[in-house]
Structures are given as structure tokens and as C-alpha cells.
Amino acid sequence: MSKPVIRFQSPAHDERVSSRIGIWLAVAFGVCFVTGLISHGIQHSWFWWPSRPVHLYHLTQGLHVTSGVAAIPLLLAKLWSVYPKLFERPLVRSVPHALERGSILVLSGAVFFETVTGVFNVAQNYLWGFYFPTAHYAVAWVAVGSILVHVAVKLPVVRRGLARPVDGSRRRFLRTTWLASGVAVLATAGGTVAFLRPVSPLSTRSDRGPQGVAVNRTARAAGIVVPEDWRLEVWAPSGIRRFTRAELAALPQTTARLPIACVEGWSATADWTGVPVADLLRLVGVAPGAAVRVESLEPTGLYRASTLPGPHTADPDTLLALRINGEDLAPDHGYPCRIIAPNRPGVLQTKWVSRLEVR
Ligand SMILES: Nc1nc2c(c(=O)[nH]1)N[C@H]1C(S)=C(S)[C@@H](COP(=O)(O)O)O[C@H]1N2
Ligand SMILES: [Mo]
Known about the structure:
Layout (H helix, E strand, L loop, with lengths): L14 H29 L12 H27 L12 H29 L7 H33 L4 H22 L42 E5 L2 E5 L1 H6 L3 E8 L5 E10 H7 L8 E5 L8 E4 L1 H4 L5 E6 L2 E2 L9 E3 L12 E6 L1
Parallel strand pairs: 1-10
Antiparallel strand pairs: 1-2, 3-4, 4-7, 5-6, 5-10, 7-8, 7-9
The chain binds the ligand Nc1nc2c(c(=O)[nH]1)N[C@H]1C(S)=C(S)[C@@H](COP(=O)(O)O)O[C@H]1N2 and molybdenum atom (MO).
The site of the ligand Nc1nc2c(c(=O)[nH]1)N[C@H]1C(S)=C(S)[C@@H](COP(=O)(O)O)O[C@H]1N2 has 22 residues, from loops.
Protein name: Molybdopterin-dependent oxidoreductase
InterPro entries: Di-haem_cyt_TM, OxRdtase_Mopterin-bd_dom, OxRdtase_Mopterin-bd_sf
Organism: Actinokineospora xionganensis
């Protein structure tokens, strides 16, 4: 009985093509993994993170989302290039061969999961609640591990593929792939770089919202009720001090131009005005540089509180902000007051603050 012969005719099914795309995929995944680790680490206080440069986190998180999106066309082109291997027979040649095949299965699944959950998170606010960060973080390790195995196994093929030049139709396939990836980058980069916004259809959220700044969680969604007798409480070893909003507004004010850089990739820079946290600490006899727990009026919710580490409480531009772009904060931006600190993930810029506790 004669076996049916499957022919794969595209010149893109070639190690010269797949190894070149593979290099760029490795770069995109590498950037995405490292910047993701940075973001996760800051949110879990794993390491010392400075308050300057002001836009550093804005940049690393922008790179995280942009490199993840850039990988999608590369991934599709890579799959197209190598998929005929799925039809190679025998399915399993040896134990190492079986392990290698298995690692590709794990790799594909993990990378698919990361890109899909990442893109959904950029597009749809908190679709997964707490589950998203945990799962996205855990699967990232699976992806990186299987990529390392894959690269190690394929190194001889990659070297051979790169050593051989690409001709006409293969070069066109590669150029189309780079172009598609470039378009994906442009479509997303406006979330990080404001002047690219007009050509960035995926970054429309950045300036849509009250006072020209996007809102992830509105005051209504967070169930915020500001009591008539609201006071900011500052808890220090010396005791508790309370300030009305008028008293806060009567203290010396600082204005700082700082970004909100959301983990989801959108960002918006504004002029914030308020009282430096360092000044409030001095008023209760605490030296700036102490860690401060920030509590909000939000009754429940994953982002209702945060902790400002030492480098941030010492920074004169870390504000208990009362105003944005010259206006009182809208309820959705955290009225009566919010934290805005340089070089921090947006998720830690706590709104509707009720209490600062010196640790
Ligand atoms: N209390 C509280 N503060 C919060 C949040 C929240 O859900 N509750 N969301 C955070 C997130 S994820 C971001 S990106 C910023 C957004 O601030 P904005 O809505 O003023 O743009 O607020 C942060 N502060
Ligand atoms: Mo956010």
C-alpha cells in the first residue's frame, strides 16, 4: 500500500527562515520576560527600586507590552515556517527526540497562553481579577524554560540556517514578517509614547477619561463614599494626626509632572499638585525615608492599599495629590486625595486615601 505523500511547497518552510525569525522571537521574549519580572518584583517588593528616573517604569512596562505584541506576528510566521515538521514520521525517533518534541508542545501552549491573556488584559480591564497576574507570571517561567531548552537543542540548526543566505522569495517572506511585527509595535506603542497615539489603535485608553487621564476603576465601581467628616489620618509612633482637606490645601504645595503607567500598558502624564509625603512625615516627627502604608476608603478590592518604600517617601515629588492639571481631583481620580509617586506601577498609585501609616 502506498502512503499518501504530503508536499509542503512554500519556500518559507526552511531553516534559514525559521532561524532568522527565531532570533527575533528570542529577543522579543527576552525583553518581555525581563520587564515583566521587573514589574512583578516591584509589586511584591522583591528588590530595591529607585524613585528616579521618573519615567523608568513607564518605559519598562511599555517595553513589556510592546515586545509581547511584537512577538505575535513573529510567532505566527515561525509556526508557518516549521509546521510541516508536525507531519514528520516516525513521530518519535528516540527518547531525546521525544523530549524535544514534548518541549515544543509545552512551549507553544505557554507562549499562546501568555500572549492571549496579555492582550486580553490590555484590552479588557481585569477580566481575570487576581488570577491574571498570578497565572501570567507563573506560565512565564514555563515559557522561558521551554524556550531555553528549545534554543539549546536547535542551536546547530540555527547556526547552519543563519550561515546560509536567503534568496528572493524567502527574503520577501522575512520582510513581510518584520513589517507585520513593526505594525503591531506601532499599534501598541502609543500607550507608552504619547505622540504615537494617532497611529496606535490599540492604545486608545490612555487619554480617555475625566481630566484627560484614563481611569481603570471608577469611584462608583470601587464603592467610594467620602464621609462628611473625612480626615486624612497619619499614624506615627508619636500618635495619630488628622488633617481636613482644607488643612492639607493650606500646607505648602508641590507640583510635579509625573506619569500614571498602568501595568496594562496605557500611560498618561499629568501635572499633579499636593503635599509631599516627606513633609507630612516631618509634621509627625518621622524622617522621610521610612516605609509608609497607604490605606484607602475603598472597602474591598485588590488595589485598595499599597506600601510606599523608603526611596519614594524620601523623594520630594512623591505627593499626596489634591489636584490634577490645575483642577481638584475628579472622584474617579481619587478625590479627596491620592498618592502619586515617581517611577511606580499605576496599580500602586492609591486613590481615595484615608490613612498613612508609618511602618
Ligand atoms: N484605591 C484604589 N486605588 C487605585 C486603584 C484601585 O482600584 N483602587 N487602581 C490603580 C490602578 S490599576 C491605576 S492604573 C491607577 C489609575 O489612576 P487613574 O484612574 O487616576 O488614572 O490607579 C490606581 N489606584
Ligand atoms: Mo493599573
